[in-house]
């Protein structure tokens, strides 16, 4: 293993334990994924099912148990009996909000009513007879980037994911910042514009309301409704108004549509404003930005934010803050589960 955050917790694990894999579970809004993750972060086996948060908690637990059992037996044939392949534990990355200490999923938005206060870590731990640990998807992603991605050897990091929604996670002086309720780091709900557009959480002017895929799509529907964007209207005509996506708006910007360019520019300015706030509040060395929109936009999103921080952050120290793309892509949650299990077994929280 490389010189990483993971290594920092390794000394408390016995040498044989350092060589053991981990079972990872990634519970997203649309997909439920499981993997056997090797001690070097390699995915040794994987399995996937549609996420069943709309079918209810019992169904998700059944599916998760089945997927984890599959990857556990597929990953290390013949080795598990000897102990070498016996997983160290189960890491669970889930949509928030969660109580990471209790291992409980609280009340994810748009989920089945039974999906309230689900003790997923205790339940899966009991069924698979392994220690199990839970954290919010963004916190797990940050752990993955720390050990194997863009944030190696950095102690003060903020992680942001910009896709349909916007999520965040904070590492302060090497420790994940959970807050007393376990819900700290919801950076999508940073206020960037008083009286701005409505956010899914019920408030106004949050980063997510303007710069997320959902926020960009909402602005596109407004532009179509007011007749401001013939190009987006044509897309809506073909695909249906509810099907116009942030990718369509970005493409319309590239094709020269002024309304689409205005929407994307608004999103980028909101993101830049949030970055200045993050620099001033947390003074991190590094901000890692993942998610489908960040990946698609690249430096078009990050470069204006770097300039805004350089020019307007409060103190010169925070102006040093680097803003870089995430390195791990789609498997970041699964790889992060390895680090989560090691970190918790070593007494971290
Ligand atoms: Zn909000």
Spatial order of the strands in the main sheet? 3-2-1-4-7
| Helix count, DSSP H or I runs of 4 or more residues | 13
- CATH architecture classification of the largest domain: 2-Layer Sandwich
Low-confidence stretches: 1-11
CA gyration radius, whole angstroms: 21 Å
Short description:
With 349 residues, this protein is α/β, with parallel strands linked by helices. Zinc ion binds next to loops.
Describe the 3D structure:
This protein has helices at 5-9, 15-18, 57-75, 120-128, 137-148, 207-211, 213-225, 230-239, 246-254, 258-282, 292-297, 299-312, 332-345; strands at 22-27, 31-37, 43-50, 90-94, 98-99, 104-105, 132-136, 157-162, 166-172, 175-176, 286-290, 322-325. The chain is 42% helix and 17% strand. It is α/β, with parallel strands linked by helices and 349 residues long. The chain folds into 2 domains: 5-147 and 331-345, 2-Layer Sandwich (Nucleotidyltransferase, domain 5); 154-326, Nucleotidyltransferase, domain 5, CATH 3.30.420.40. A 5-stranded mixed sheet has the order 3-2-1-4-7, with helices on both faces. The two termini are 22 Å apart. Residues 189, 199, 201, 203, 206, 208 line the site of zinc ion.
Produce the secondary structure layout.
Layout: H1 5-9, H2 15-18, E1 22-27, E2 31-37, E3 43-50, H3 57-75, E4 90-94, E5 98-99, E6 104-105, H4 120-128, E7 132-136, H5 137-148, E8 157-162, E9 166-172, E10 175-176, H6 207-211, H7 213-225, H8 230-239, H9 246-254, H10 258-282, E11 286-290, H11 292-297, H12 299-312, E12 322-325, H13 332-345
Parallel strand pairs: 1-4, 4-7, 8-11, 11-12
Antiparallel strand pairs: 1-2, 2-3, 5-6, 8-9, 9-10
Helix pairs in contact: 3-4, 5-13, 7-8, 7-10, 9-10, 10-12
The structure holds zinc ion.
Zinc ion is lined by residues 189, 199, 201, 203, 206, 208.
């Amino acid at each position: 293993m490389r010189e990483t955050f993971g290594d920092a917790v390794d000394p408390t694990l016995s040498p044989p334990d350092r060589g053991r894999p981990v079972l990872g579970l990634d519970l997203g809004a649309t997909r439920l994924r499981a993997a056997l993750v090797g001690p070097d972060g390699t995915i040794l086996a994987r399995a996937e099912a549609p996420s069943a948060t709309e079918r209810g908690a019992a169904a998700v637990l059944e599916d998760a148990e089945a997927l984890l059992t599959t990857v556990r037996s597929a990953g290390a044939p013949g080795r598990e009996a000897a102990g070498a392949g016996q997983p160290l534990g189960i890491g669970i990355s889930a949509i928030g909000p969660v109580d990471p200490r209790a291992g409980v999923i609280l009340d994810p938005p748009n989920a089945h009513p039974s999906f309230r206060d689900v003790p997923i870590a205790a339940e899966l731990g009991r069924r698979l007879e392994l220690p199990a640990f839970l954290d919010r998807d963004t916190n797990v992603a940050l752990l993955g980037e720390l050990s194997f991605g863009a944030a190696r050897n950095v102690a003060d990091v903020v992680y942001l994911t910009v896709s349909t929604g916007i999520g965040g996670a904070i590492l302060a002086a090497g420790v994940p910042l959970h807050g007393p309720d376990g819900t700290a780091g919801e950076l999508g709900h940073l206020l960037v514009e008083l009286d701005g557009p409505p956010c899914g959480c019920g408030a106004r002017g949050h980063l997510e309301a303007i710069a997320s895929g959902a926020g960009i799509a909402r602005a596109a529907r407004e532009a179509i409704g007011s007749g401001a964007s013939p190009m987006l209207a044509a897309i809506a005509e073909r695909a249906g108004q509810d099907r116009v996506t942030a990718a369509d708006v970005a493409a319309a910007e590239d094709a020269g549509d002024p309304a689409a360019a205005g929407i994307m520019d608004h999103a980028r300015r909101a993101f830049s404003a949030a970055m200045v706030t993050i620099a001033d509040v947390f003074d991190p060395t590094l901000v890692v930005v993942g998610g489908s929109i960040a990946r698609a936009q690249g430096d078009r999103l990050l470069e204006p934010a770097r300039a805004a921080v350089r020019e307007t952050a409060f103190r010169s120290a925070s102006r040093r803050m680097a803003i870089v793309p995430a390195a791990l892509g789609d498997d970041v949650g699964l790889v992060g589960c390895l680090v989560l299990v090691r970190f918790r077994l070593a007494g971290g929280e």
